[in-house]
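Pasting two entries for a bug report.
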Amino acid sequence: MTKKSIRSTAYILLFSFLISFDVQAQNQALSVDEVLALFYQRNLDLIAAQYNIDQSVADAIIASAIPNPTIGFQLLELSRNLNNNSSATGCPANTSCGPAQYYSFSQLIEVAGKRGLRIQSSGFATQAAESDFRDAIRIFSNMVRDAYYQLLQTQKNLWLAQEIVDHYQTVTKANNLRMKSGDISESDFLRVKMEALRAESDLDNAQTAVTMAQADLAVILRWPEKSLQFEAKEEWPLVKDIGQQLSQDDLINKALQQRPDLQADKLRAEQADKQLELAKRLKYPDVTVSAGYARDPSNNALNSGFVGFSIPLPLFYQYQGEADKANVNLSQSRLAAQQTELGIRNDVVSALATWKSADKIVSRFKEGLLDDALAVRNSSELAYNKGATSVLDLIEAERSYKNVMHDYYAAEINRANAYYDLEKSLGIESNSDKTLSKRTSQTR
């Protein structure tokens, strides 16, 4: 046996073991809220770090800081015989009186409101980072929900496959007795047996799909302990009035007021506007005020003080480059906000249309299509058992029932995802999302 064949066989055995272990293991049923809580428990700090909330807070502290003062000390007139035979009143004749001592203090004073503009700019940056974080929670929450409902759909398909296998087993047992009594032909018996084998293959594929969906969810959850034993509860979103009945324009206006990504872009535009104003005020020079005390034995005034100020003159360069750069940044920020607004309009229109379509499809199933498919299967089986219909009609009815149920499960999943997508497009935060945002703002 080649190494490739051995490796393939090992993979098959390992996969079969995982499937059998997962079937026999006691699965832990989790609701979508519990899965979301687990996701953010393991990822919240990473997401917050990614959106630099801590850094924004630190930048705000730096922006509001007042320049530190400067203290200086100098010794002047250093030589071997300092001020010897000086005629100064502070130094008697024939005496070395020591060097002059100067003590100074200086403080930079910012003018033209530059510090206030920096504080306002950093405040907008911090708010934008917090809006980015809320937007990340909005996006990641739906990502987790998509994986959760994908798992639920595969579970529903698995339950359906098991039901059909059990059903065919019952029919096969009855056909054994009927064939022995000559009630049905061997070809009809074999056709039903072949469908039963096909149903068992569908069951194996459905189990594989469940295992893969569990693995996908485990990856999103950063693979917690016993993640392959998670089972999605059959819980559908509680549909609330989030504006589904409003007009399209009203929904768009609602989204434009609530979407955190648009709020973040607008805050960055406000920040860029403050930075432009700050850049324009750089041409107004800051003033450095100085004061000090001097003790100079060689001077007629032994102890004296001094005050003064210094101003850099913007004669050759008046910070036009900083102003131009800030102006470009402001234009780019406003353009980003406009593009985000266009994207929001498209999101709302698409999400609303998808929700209305998905809701109508599920309603059609519940209004009679499910009952009709089950009634057709049961009546076909009853007629077949009485010899009033052929085995082909029985198989066709069973296939139709399976297809209808598959389509119904897919419609339910699409409806749940469409509802959450509509919520996401409108910028509506669920209670769990609000709790996460509040928890992060309190701990940072």
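Entry 2 (this is the one that rendered wrong in the viewer):
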Amino acid sequence: MKSLLSQASPIIFAVAFSFLNCIAACAEEPVTKFVRVPIFFLTDRNIVGDPKQTDFDFGPHRKYVGDCLHDPFLGNASVVIENVDRKPVTEALKRIGWQAVETDKKEGLISNTLFQGETHDEIAAKFYGTLKEQCELTKDKNVFVFVHGYKNSFRSAAHTAAWLSYNAERPTILYSWPSVAKLRSYSSDENNVEWSQEHFNDMICSLDDMCKDDPGIKIRLMAHSMGSRLLVRAIPILRDRHYISEFAMICPDVDSGLVKHYARRYFNPSGTAKVRLYMSRRDKALALSQIVHGGYTRLGECADSLSGILNQVMGNRPENGNEDKNEAAADDAAFRETMKLAKHRLQTIDFTEIDRGFIGHNVPAKLICSMSFSETPGSKLELIQEESGQRSKLSNTFSKITHLKDTAPHITESCLRVVRTDQQKQTPKPKK
């Protein structure tokens, strides 16, 4: 009997030790109903309230009228969101500012803090220095940059950015331009997002400087709806930046023809960044934008293969009387060969099946983060091939009403559609 006990003692001790370790780990890594997630922000909105307090906010107007000082506000925000995935707040998450929150806390923006300094250059140095420190605390030094769309207050945009940060578990910058955040102010938002372009470009240049100091840092750029215009217009200064690992346009409210018009000039076939277009056929907001813009379709509702668009554009190369035809043909052949190598990093993703609400037009944060890091859509989801050009019925109806039919040849390349694996799969109807 004593012999059996002596043999079992090490096993009992090991089990007890493991059990105590589990208890200690649970004590150190609490799982709460809510978590407080920090984000960085850069905004050229007007400030509302006392910036010396933490309850100040940013309003619907430009920081300055008439002047062009290029000194947006730089700061940190703390946002409480529901811990839907029951994530424990590990030591790694605590190092980048996460906090477990008691269950009586409500969701939303809790506090703002501005970086301080005598000059904007001094403030910017502190901002990007702190961001770099946060990057170096993560395993892959990835940073998310999120640009919101039309009809977004600073608070609502911060909430969306926090959801991205929650799913990515990486430092996230919210770029917030002065959206009026009212349904009737579409034209004002269009005007303000254009006004904000140079400030957005300044941020890209500052990130460029930060990444030169540490080549291991990677930037993932995400833009939603009207905010995608800032991203598209910044491509001339972004296309050769190798630290940019991803461009994601989510339901982009950008003229589809405009993007095709500049595709040849903007696309860098030798680049390495993934370019993803997320669209939904439940998106009624873009269909309404289509009508506002005279019937011309928006990029977020075209549902065409991105590589197919580029090949189509190259096939319609304008003739140049001073250009040698053989040389032009050789250039086109070289481009198409390069496109075969670049095709894998160009994706159109139809997330109709998981888009929420009557209007749709949402930011599928979990899907985006899963695609960014694993090339898969996430738990209980998968990607299947879908015929290119699967636009919504509302968009097709508006095209008929305005008599603006797309005259470009049909793109035969396929797109990717998100489907649920816990439901019976449905074969997509053939395009008429």
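Dev reply: Rendering is fixed now. As a check, the viewer should reflect this: The first helix runs from residue 2 to 28.
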